[in-house]
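May I ask for a protein sequence together with how it folds?
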Amino acid sequence: MMQGGKQLVNAKAIGLVLLFFCSIYSLSINKTLEYAEQENNHAQFSDSNSNNHQWNITAGQWYSIEILCETCTADLTHNEAILFEEARQFMGQVNTSGILELTIKNNNAQNVEVISLLAPNETFPTIRPPPGEIRPLVEIYDCHQTDSCIDKESSILATYLGTGNLNDEFYINGLLDSEQSEFLGIDVEVGDNLELSIAYSSSDIDFELYFQDQVNESYLGSILATSTPTNFLENPNVVFIPVTDSGRIIIKATSQSVNTLWSLKIINHPPTSSMMWNLSEQNEIFGHTSKTVIIDTNDTTALIFNPTNVPTNYSYQCLVGGTWLSAGDGIMQPAKENWLFPLPNSSAIKLVFTGSAFHLAAQSDIFADSQSGYDAPSLPPMRISTDNSSWPTIDLTKPTSKGEFTTSIGDTSDVYKMEITAWEDSVHFVKFEIEGDIESLEIEMISKDLVDWSDIESKTKTIVNGKLQVAMEVPRGTHFFRISLINYTTNIDWGNYTPPIEYTILTTYQLVDEGEEPWFPPDENAEKWGSIARWIFGFLFLTPAIYLLISVQKKKLFAERLKSKKQRLEWLKIQLDKGISPKQNRRLLAKSLEAVAILDWEDACETWGEADVVYRTENVAIAAWKLDPRIAKHNDSWPVMIGVYIIKGSWEISALRLDSPKGQAWKIDSVTPRFLFSGDEIFLDSMNAGNKTFVSVELSGTASSVDIELNGRMDGKPAASRAAQTLYRINEEE
């Protein structure tokens, strides 16, 4: 009978496991936390319409289980022995190992949330360590993908974990079996942002935080506390802790009640480096603490941001003539459009967002006049020699042109040019009429003398008989039309958004060709030398193609020579030992980097010698070599060489990130061949299948190792490949 009972129990367990994997809504996730090399606990939050739940429990463990619903109840058994009947909350300690089974009676078919927490057999230390004392630290989850760690529905943009799926990396659980406090430590770095919340507590609990470096300690206060049992489903509670110094944080857990079971959610949001942002492909910006984005734009494109739920601090600069100029700062408010306007002649905008957590929807708006790509200047050119290409041209053959006064940047006057082409005796009649808020407008037509740039004639008009129009007969050449706001008294600070004032230009153009069209027979010498010139220029046009062909052929021959020699890096080291200058060796290395990219990937890698890091997937291959420090251009820099091979797919806005897994972040001093770089990132732009790129990089910093990561968009989707090996500056055997 006893053997048959055991078989029945085993059969039930197997059936329940199969039911677990087949049910979409039945989720149960165990959490294992390593502290001092001991298994501490298992915590589960599950939303499930399943009526049966099971947990393995060992002798001496405490448990706390709660079901959340309106009318349902449940029974709890241990090894088929009834512990509780017709209840919703269950807490206790078992004397023998076995299976806890929860059977829910849900007659009304309601949605049920099950929260369960099994206490660890081991507890955390009861004495707070002094600064500098080595103690085991608790591993916490680092969220590197910000867009997956922000719940846009949350009022404070907390991390979304779901209502029934508790990932074991997010939670630290414990048991306060006495009135003594317990302490746990976590490692933190400058720029980190810790997100903490009480996920569950069976009784009152208070979490206090201390920050410690090697010599000092500071009290951060009571960060989270509750006087009653709580869980994150019924009482969402989240705080963000910005980290301003590297060290460790000691968490003190205290309860006035004995045998308090608790679960603490801790998520670390590491700092992010600046990145290029393409609004046509990415229209959402996520972040914690601080995030810098650079947007390639022009001076007639405004940016519009809509923060979600919480205000977001910002500052921005514009790239003008190769220099970043400060353009403004402030706070972006939710539930409204926040406009940012570029400075004149801007080619890019750099924005810095700050806050505990932030999410913004972004879009752009072009305020160029007459679809020209330019904001029309306020005055005509002062001289005939002035480049007038930035003055929008009115196409006289089109009946309408549209423009606007962007009053947010002080735009109250627009000047357009018109180009008249015909022979000398032709007659040109031009009339402009304006539609829009014409009562506040004034128009002027200016006819220019192309010899001395004086005004041949000028006419200024305001509204007459409900119409705003001006007409003039003009000769061939370049002339101008101006439209201006009059009596505009609104006081607006530059950059503060006000609705633009739009207008439409109606154009009437009549041409009367008078006289004969001029014609001049070609000179004999002109025909002769024209033919010779065509042959000469034809040959000159072919010269770049010939040069390119020769250059490619030379690279192929050089690559084949490198392929046969192998161990190129060892050869460079020997050259340095012989006294060959580092500058000369750098030139040889740069030449080799371009040539080797022509070879097959395996042949190219063998040419350099055995790689220190090798990584390959079905889409991407990455290899890295440490270079002799003597070849570095900058003192104390660490030179490395990295090769990237795109096996499948098409990569866009791709970038190599050289991440420091421990210690200070790396800073890139130089890249060969020349690629754009910033901080610890190298921007490779677009790469297609079959592309091979080799670069030498000089890194500065105090860290001892570097991780290599390729980020970008592959076939239109975000993608990342991170080498599994870490490249160490000094090997352990060294």
